[in-house]
Amino acid sequence: MTPRRVTLAHDADVAGWRAAARSLLAREVEPADVIWRVGREAGDLFADAGEDVESCEDPAPTRAIPRAFVELAERALLHSDATRFDLCYRLLRRVAAERSALDDAADPDVARATALAKAVRRDAHKMTAFVRFRAAGDGSFASWFEPEHHILEATAPFFVRRFAAMRWAILTPERSAFWDGRELTFGAGARRAAAQADDAMEDVWRAYYASIFNPARLKVAAMRSEMPRKYWRNLPEAALIPSLIAKAGQATEAMTQAAPTPAKRNPTRLRTPEGAPAPVGQPDSLAVLHEEIDGCRACPLWAPATQAVPGEGPKDASIMVVGEQPGDREDIAGRPFVGPAGALFDRAAAEAGLTRDRLYLTNAVKHFKFEPRGKFRLHRSPKVDEVRACAPWLARERALVRPKLVVAMGATAARAVLGAPVTVGERRGRVETLPDGSVALVTVHPAYLLRLPDREAQAREYGRFVDDLRLAAAYLDAA
Amino acid sequence: MDLAVKLSILADAAKYDASCASSGTDRRHSGPARPGGQAQGLGSTEGAGICHSYAPDGRCISLLKILLTNACAFDCLYCVNRASSNVRRARFTVKEVVDLTLDFYRRNYIEGLFLSSGIVRSADYTMEQVVRVAKSLRLDHGFRGYIHLKTIPDADPALLAEAGLYADRLSINLELPTEAGLSQLAPEKDARAVRRTMAQLRGRIEEAKAEARAPRFSPAGQSTQMIIGADDSDDRATLETSANLYGSYRLKRVYYSAFSPIPDASSRLPSKAPPLMREHRLYQADWLMRFYGFSVHEITEADGMLDLALDPKLAWALRHRGLFPLDVNRASREELLRTPGLGRTTVERILSARRFRALRVEDLKRMRAPLGKALPFLATIDHRPRVSVLDAANLRDRLVPPPRQLALGL
Fold first, then answer.
1. How much is the average pLDDT of B239-264?
2. Where are the domains of chain B?
3. Is A125 on the interface with B (CB under 8 A)?
4. Where are the annotated segments for Disordered (chain A) (predicted)?
């Protein structure tokens, strides 16, 4: 078969490659029978061999090509490697025959194309990082940059999105990009000297570069792996690198060897508002109690938590509702019953004729006990001694509020309120008078309802929970 | 004072904060809203961060990282800006910072601004000054680049809300892993106040994400930093604090900053080379916790520290040799992720490629797996490490990389 010859307009002519490849694929031309070259390439060995492929003849669309291949090829085709056109066409044939061919990461062609695409992506990324504009007198900006691969056309739109209101040029040895504030155009390559205007801001930038460097932690290899030397000649700050390295040892020694100086006298102090009364509440008020609770260190639960979550509600509430402990949301907000269980409680309470703002809501344990797991915290039930350590706070809340009825939700709360282990299932749903004369009602914790697996059980248990709360509602107006 | 001198003082004062990220915020650009329209403002963000330069300390320079002032009322012993230090003090005006940011940004030196401040007058006054810079950049200049603001502990929630409106990221530094360490070295700093502020930030960040009508709030989340080696906390305590902070406040990052010699250091602190390798191992361990399913207790050694000579995954594998060798053609994703040398990309490539072929060493090489580290722990159809190799007492010595001077050579 006569070899086919494809001539692309320039090195970054991805569109030209795509059109030709589509045409070759439709004709089932073998990769070995295609000669790829870029326009005006001199001294082509096969210059006279083969016939040109007319890339405009576009036969009926062939098999759909996976998006993953298109993305891989669009990058790999910009590589400076001369075999990239052939490699991508070879891969295209295979992808057209077997859509999942790219998933074989160990295949030599797939691995090679992946490596080319990665190098191009890195080069383009480094271009967005290391282009340095210099201000010209007329308010426009110009930059000289030397990419390793043919990435200028693909990367220029980044600079348009970023610097749309400026006029700028990016000159490279191969091609140049120009933005006049409205339109992006490309032209011939340029020389370094074309973008060498003086810009006074470079001295300020160098002052910053020298000061942000910490001489005590010299890591030249790490710098060079991310900012290879080939970029240095176009970075104004890079001129400082050798002297910064050379002086680093001395600078560090000066810091470590310097004798401590006497502490500065009369250091600045924060201004405190003068004459403002100290924020102290009435002794024995709820406000004072809440502050004391936040300082509690009677068990280790305070340390991993954000804050103690004290009770909330009117001091003359006739009903006090006690839960187990604050959860994730309560720990963050510093308020009880604001998470999912709190929302469920609000709904059930409203249905039972209780409004939240007339209740005093609190917990048996005031700090959230949890175990971190990635971005979340897993609830852990408090141990008996942790409930015991927290008991004095609940006792003081009860003494201050003196509710007509205490509703204990769940086993932990029931234990704290009743002072002994309780089986909620047996004890729930009846109002009882305790030995100290106070009146209590045990029910389930709303979190228990949330954990029930099936909807039917959820609906049934929710109904029972509302029924229990209705018993409490009778105490609401018992002033 | 000359601008460059001021900049030198206030950049020098900011460089011990390791944070440099400019990624993960919402996408913005300054191109016209429709073709042929008018360009709007200056700048863009496109998801990935960009490091515009690197200093010889190996650190990325992405943002203009400066303090508004290095005068400070706090006397944190580890800090170059502490009240009792004799360093030279300077202060930028709001306009100076705004102009400098724009001038650097237009020349493509930076992705944006990371602004912090010493605490002067009061927490609220300081926070307000910091917020004014961000507000001016956004509203007066249509700046669409990245802004990271340092949050002052216990500042007014209304100021915090305004900061989140203009900033892409907010951060507040815990500085030391334990509260005991903090009260010893930074008596004015209140770890509880830092946590309360982090909680407040998480609340607002989640609200802004969940509700379309909620005001914008710090779309790139929040982060913090801990100094390593200034107090005597071990690596386990440090990583436990990190795990707690990630879980509690959904931090995007915890930064570790090796305690470094500073000008006019306090005589009460160690004056020695910064523990750079320890810092590096902590970052690796942090990564393993977040992306590879390791727990703090699995990766720290019995003495509470990380092995300085080996990366923490390799050290873990050497303590669990009984689990190896793994058959690369059969092992689960979770098992492969726990194999030394295999990162997430390589593991996905292995899982994908083995549907086509039974993998050989040659295939692993083509997929860019680091063979020296991985092969003692893996079996392929043409390779099976001898049990004697895995059990050998000197396997650790053979895997320890040869000493290489970090600072060496141009």
1. 95
2. 3-27+43-274, 314-399
3. yes
4. 254-280
In whole angstroms, what is the distance from residue B375 CA to residue B370 CA?
8
Topology given in CATH for the domain delimited by B3-27+43-274: TIM Barrel (3.20.20)
Helices (H), B66-136: 94-106, 123-135
Which of B57, B127, B246 to probe by mutation at the A interface, max A CB count within 10 Å? B57
Q: Is the pLDDT of residue B410 over 60?
A: no
CB A169 within 8 A of CB A176: yes
Backbone angles phi, psi at B210, to 5 degrees: -80, -35
Give the percent of chain A with pLDDT over 90: 82
CA A302 to chain centre: 28
Q: How confident is the model at residue A267 (pLDDT cuts 50, 70, 90)?
A: low
Please compute, for residue A137, the number of CA atoms within 13 A of its CA located in the half-sphere on the CB side. 1
**Chain B residues with CB inside 8 Å of A162's CB?**
29-30, 42-44, 108
Residues in chain A with CB shorter than 8 Å from the CB of B123 are: 270
The DSSP letter of residue B136 is I
Instruction: Give CA angle at A215 (A211, A219), nearest 5°.
Output: 115
Tell me what ipTM this predicted complex has: 0.95
Query: What is the structure's pLDDT at A282?
Result: 63
β-strand partners of B66: B115
Q: Is the dihedral of CA A119, A122, A124, A126 positive or negative?
A: negative
Q: What is the pLDDT of residues A291-304, one digit of tens each?
A: 999 999 999 999 99
CATH homologous superfamily for the domain A286-473? Uracil-DNA glycosylase-like domain (3.40.470.10)
Shortest Cα distance, chain B CAs vs residue A107, angstroms: 8
Which of A129, A214, A219 has the CB atom closest to B260's CB atom?
Answer: A214
In chain A, what is the straight-line distance between the N-terminal and C-terminal CA atoms, in Å?
Answer: 103
- A428: its two tokens: 């729930």
For chain A, the three-class secondary structure string (H helix, E strand, C coil) is CCCEEEEECCCCCHHHHHHHHHHHHHCCCCHHHEEEEECCCCCCCCCCCCEECCCCCCCCCCCCCCHHHHHHHHHHCCCCCCCHHHHHHHHHHHHHHCCCHHHCCCCHHHHHHHHHHHHHHHHHHHHHHHCCCEECCCCCEEEECCCCCCCHHHHHHHHHHHCCCCCEEEECCCEEEEECCCCEEEEECCCHHHHCCCCCHHHHHHHHHHHHCCHHHCCHHHHHHHCCHHHHHHCHHHHHHHHHHHHHHHHHHHHHHCCCCCCCCCCCCCCCCCCCCCCCCCCCCHHHHHHHHHCCCCCHHHCCCCCCCCCECCCCCCEEEEECCCCHHHHHHCCCCCCHHHHHHHHHHHHCCCCHHHEEEEECCCCCCEEEECCEEEECCCCHHHHHHHHHHHHHHHHHHCCCEEEEEHHHHHHHHHCCCCCHHHHCCCEEECCCCCEEEEECCHHHHHHCCCHHHHHHHHHHHHHHHHHHHCCCCCC
Among the partner residues A106, A160, A218, nearest to B56 by beta-carbon distance: A218
Contacts of A415 (CB under 8 A, 6+ apart): A364, A384, A387, A421, A422
Among left, alpha and beta (phi > 0; psi -120 to 50; other), residue A293 is alpha
Size of interface A-B (CB pairs under 8 A): 277
Contact B354, B328 (CB under 8 A): yes
In chain A, where are the structural domains located? 4-123, 131-195, 201-253, 286-473
A95, A62 contact by CB (below 8 A): no
Mutate: best of B84, B109, B188, partner A, most A CBs <10 A:
B109
Q: Is the pLDDT of residue B99 over 70?
A: yes
Do B55 and A223 touch, CB atoms closer than 8 A?
A: yes
